[in-house]
Design goal:
CATH topology of chain B: Rossmann fold
Distance between the termini of chain B: 32 Å
CATH class of chain B: Alpha Beta
Helix content of chain B: 25-40%
Helix content of chain A: 55-70%
Largest sheet of chain B: 7 strands, mixed
CATH superfamily of the largest domain in chain A: Reverse transcriptase/Diguanylate cyclase domain
Number of helices of chain A: 21
Number of domains of chain B: 1
Strand order of the largest sheet of chain A: 3-2-1-6-5-4
Number of helices of chain B: 7
Structural class of chain A: alpha+beta
Strand content of chain A: 5-15%
Distance between the termini of chain A: 141 Å
CATH superfamily of chain B: P-loop containing nucleotide triphosphate hydrolases
CATH architecture of chain B: 3-Layer(aba) Sandwich
Shape of chain B: globular
CATH class of the largest domain in chain A: Alpha Beta
CATH architecture of the largest domain in chain A: 2-Layer Sandwich
Largest interface: A-B, 31 and 27 residues
Radius of gyration of chain A: 52 Å
Number of strands of chain B: 9
Largest sheet of chain A: 6 strands, antiparallel
Oligomer: heterodimer
Order of helices and strands of chain B: EEEHEHHEHEHEHEEH
CATH topology of the largest domain in chain A: Alpha-Beta Plaits
Structural class of chain B: alpha/beta
Strand content of chain B: 15-25%
Radius of gyration of chain B: 16 Å
Chain lengths: 620, 203
């Protein structure tokens, strides 16, 4: 039955069937209301409400106008804003609803969608003619139940959204807690390693244990320092220097770990130094966030560990240098023994001083530039001077020599008890350095530390005299200097100089005025036993030039070089002159004076390099 | 029809002669009604006929097989699980009279004891298909009430709420003396008898 009008009998009373139909409609609406209220889908509720109209009477749902201005059509389910033709009517509606005009004779009414939460909108009903009172009551019931169901659905949605937000918050919180726990676990494990002093190996083991990935720890240059986990490469590969430097620059720029090929790498770098790197070997890219966190914390612990080790090494180095300095400048025996013992060095045996001069540094000016600290920088950013020092250290180690090492302006000072073939040591230094030139002066062996300044001065003299006589690079032992050693040890150098001057004055004067090298020519000639061929070779001149020079020497001095007596005295005089030259060169190094011959300049350079003020003073 | 049958649906008590509409919103809810309903009938020796449309008969049989020997029950004829194509749409379209005869034939199962009530259940999503005759659903449901008194049977019609519009829901409710909602049965003493319903449709 179209319930817009209820059938009546002849008395005008509703027929039993009509009453039953009205009752079943209400009963059905009750069930429909339950179904709508159980639904959390607002769209489904509105569809049910709109589509039930034909079963209840000859009216239809034009749509639903909500208080927020939204609209849902009852026929085609179009959504949007309340249509313009309805806006004014809706604006005039109160909580009880009211009439709607469609611009034609159609009946229209807005029924409020109400709930405990208040008015949410209106059900707009439309019919060709106004439904009966019973029919309008049914529409009102539909609207009321729809309002409650919609309100319920919206509350449900809010609750569901809140529940979802709460669930998401809980999940995020759980993840945060898990991350924190993991972080604490990582922190405790790594700080435990640091506290136990397990070093790089302990850090690598801990990181491997935490991540399950192989771990490599390398020094700044890519040399392996520790490995943990399976698959350690043999031999350990070393990347090219330029690639290594590029990786280090990238790590410093990123300020966190980066993936480099099959590895995730972090820098152990207490700014601005780079002490090493730590890497997770992860070819399958399975390192997760907590693994990266462990790696970066591991890098921090490693940085602290490496900085501590470097600090210890620096301190020991400083103590060794201080001890070396004091041994060379003079110190008491007891104090020296105690300090050496503290450093783990045995000074109880006789020691000597050996000086090794880097001839390459001398030619580049490095030897004289200590005060300005303008050291040439070579391979891998390491100063040339330091490389020479390292070469000497490695050479000594190769010969199983223990020693105290220091450096001074292009020369390396070695205090050692070792007895080795000194020329063999010099050659080993050259090998370690990869070639070049070096001279060596070796002082005498002394049993007491307080005598080492003397050994140092002897080494300096040996080095200086060697340069003075213009011989090829070699190890010069003070004890083997012969007549030079005798001249140098005389207390009054003036007598030696007078003796030399008396025999060589014409030649010295001639050299000074003409710029010739007659004294040197004579010295070399006598040193080579009067043999023309070897003398010319030593002087790098032609044989005829040598003969011409010797003729000039005979003419200027009037000496017969073939006379044994003259020969002997001239040999003594040239050696005395060389000794005096070296001595004076040492003096000029302390108080600048005009340079003498080129050889004397070289000797002076050697003397300056060794930092002595006066050779004659030193030998006293 | 007199006599009482205890149904295993929790909290639900039905009588022979009941014609019930049930609403569900998800397949799980459907199964929560359908499976206990059939198991209750099978356990009491009742003939049970099930016509499904929103799932395959095999789905129902597999669920039942978790509890009973479905092969034996099917062989004995106590259990029949069919699909809508072979029943409601047998021949292509929906003919109410044919389906009414179908249910009446099931109610006359020879193995049924006097104390047993036959349990029939129809999964009514077929009514949403684009097939000839589906528009006669409400009339069919109303006419089904006529045969309920003739045989000791219970008929349960399951509707998917997500696919029903308000008009269909109201028509279904008006033609069923009882409705099952969320495990609860609501009586509708004012449901329209077939003649009254048909008369209301024609006014």
């Amino acid at each position: 039955m179209a319930l817009g009008s209820m059938s009546t009998d002849l008395t005008g009373q509703p027929t039993p069937v009509a009453v039953r139909e009205q009752l079943t409609n209400l009963r059905a609406l009750l069930v429909l209301s339950i179904l709508m209220t159980e639904s959390s889908d607002e769209d489904q509720i509105l569809r049910l409400a709109a589509s039930c109209a034909p079963s209840l009477g000859r009216w239809r749902v034009e749509g639903f106008a909500f208080t927020d201005g939204s609209w849902r059509s009852g026929e085609h389910w179009a959504t949007g804003q309340i249509p313009a033709w309805l806006v004014d009517d809706c604006a005039a509606l109160g909580p009880a609803g009211g009439a709607i005009t469609f611009g034609n004779p159609d009946w229209g009414w807005a029924y409020p969608l109400r709930s405990a939460g208040g008015l949410s909108g209106y059900l707009i009903a439309r019919a060709d003619e106004a439904p009966s009172a019973e029919g309008q009551f049914l529409i009102q019931v539909v609207a009321q139940q729809t309002g409650v169901a919609v309100s319920n659905a919206r509350l449900h949605q809010i609750q569901r959204a809140s529940a979802e937000a709460l669930t998401a918050s809980n999940a995020a919180l759980e993840e945060t807690v898990a991350t924190l726990r993991r972080g604490m676990q990582i922190h405790q494990r790594l700080t435990g390693v640091a506290a136990a002093g397990e070093g790089s190996t302990g850090i690598a083991d801990a990181l491997h244990e935490l991540t399950g990935l192989p771990v490599a720890i390398e020094d700044r240059y890519g040399n392996l320092r520790a490995w943990a986990g399976p698959g350690r490469p043999q031999p350990y590969p070393k990347s090219r220097e330029d690639r290594r430097e590029e990786l280090l620059r990238r790590l410093q720029l990123e300020e966190r770990s980066v993936r480099a090929g099959s590895r995730v790498v972090a820098l152990a770098s207490p700014r601005p130094d780079v002490l090493g790197v730590i890497a997770l070997v992860d070819p399958d890219d399975r390192a997760d966030g907590s693994d990266i966190m462990a790696l970066e914390q591991g890098a921090t612990v490693l940085a602290v560990e490496l900085a501590r080790l470097r600090g210890l090494a620096d301190a020991e180095l400083r103590l060794r240098r201080d001890l070396l300095h004091d041994l060379l400048s003079g110190t008491d025996d007891e104090g020296a023994y105690a300090r050496a013992e503290a450093l783990g060095y045995d000074l109880g045996q006789p020691h000597r001083v050996v000086l090794i001069a880097d001839r390459n540094a001398a030619t580049t000016g490095d030897a004289a530039s200590t005060q300005q600290d303008e050291r040439p920088v070579g391979r891998a950013g390491v100063p040339h001077h330091d490389r020479f020092l390292h070469a000497v250290r490695r050479a000594l180690r190769g010969l199983r020599c223990t020693a105290l090492l220091g450096s001074d302006s292009g020369a390396v000072v070695v205090v050692t008890s070792c007895e080795v073939d000194w020329e063999e040591l010099r050659q080993a230094v050259l090998r370690e350095q990869g070639g070049g030139r070096a001279r060596m002066g070796v002082g005498e062996l002394y049993s007491r530390p307080s005598d080492l300044p003397r050994s140092w001065r002897e080494a300096q003299l040996a080095l200086g005299l060697h340069a003075g006589v213009g011989k090829a690079d070699q190890a010069t032992v003070y004890a083997d200097l012969g007549v030079f050693r005798m001249f140098a040890s005389l207390p009054d150098l003036d007598d030696v100089e007078d003796f030399a001057a008396r025999w060589l004055r014409p030649l010295v004067s001639y050299d000074a005025t003409k710029g010739t090298e007659l004294v040197q020519t004579l010295t070399t000639y006598l040193d080579h036993g009067g043999r023309y061929e070897t003398t010319a070779q030593a002087l790098s001149i032609h044989r005829s030039t040598l003969k011409y020079r010797l003729q000039r020497i005979r003419e200027l001095s009037g000496y017969d070089l073939n006379d044994p007596e003259t020969h002997f005295n001239l040999q003594l005089a040239t050696r005395a002159w060389t000794t005096v030259g070296v001595m004076h060169a040492g003096s000029r190094a302390a108080s600048p004076a005009p340079s003498g011959s080129p050889r004397q300049d070289e000797a002076a350079a050697a003397g300056r390099g060794l930092g002595f003020r006066s050779v004659s003073q030193m030998l006293r | 029809m007199t006599g009482t049958a205890t149904v295993d649906l929790p909290g639900v008590r039905l009588q022979a002669g009941d014609h019930i509409c049930g609403f569900y919103r998800a397949p799980e809810e459907r199964d929560d009604i359908l499976i206990p309903y059939l198991l209750g009938g099978l356990s009491s020796g009742s003939k049970c006929t099930c016509v499904v449309d929103s799932c395959a008969p095999s789905h129902v049989l597999e669920r039942l097989a978790e509890t009973v020997d479905v092969a034996l029950l099917c062989e004995q004829g106590q259990l029949e699980v069919l699909d809508s194509d072979s029943t409601y749409f047998d021949g292509g379209g929906f003919l109410p009279e044919r389906m009414l005869r179908f249910w009446a034939s099931k109610a006359r199962w020879s193995g049924s004891k006097d104390s047993n009530v036959v349990r029939n259940i129809g999964d009514m999503t077929w009514a949403h298909r684009d097939k000839p005759g589906v528009e006669d659903l409400a009339m069919y449901e109303s006419e089904l009430n006529r045969i309920m008194d003739g045989y000791p049977q219970i008929v349960l019609c399951l509707y998917d709420m997500n696919r029903c519009d308000g008009g269909m829901v109201l028509d279904v409710l008006k033609t069923h003396p009882k409705a099952m909602l969320g495990g609860m049965v609501i009586n509708n003493p004012y449901y329209l008898e077939p003649d009254d319903f048909l008369a209301s449709r024609t006014r």
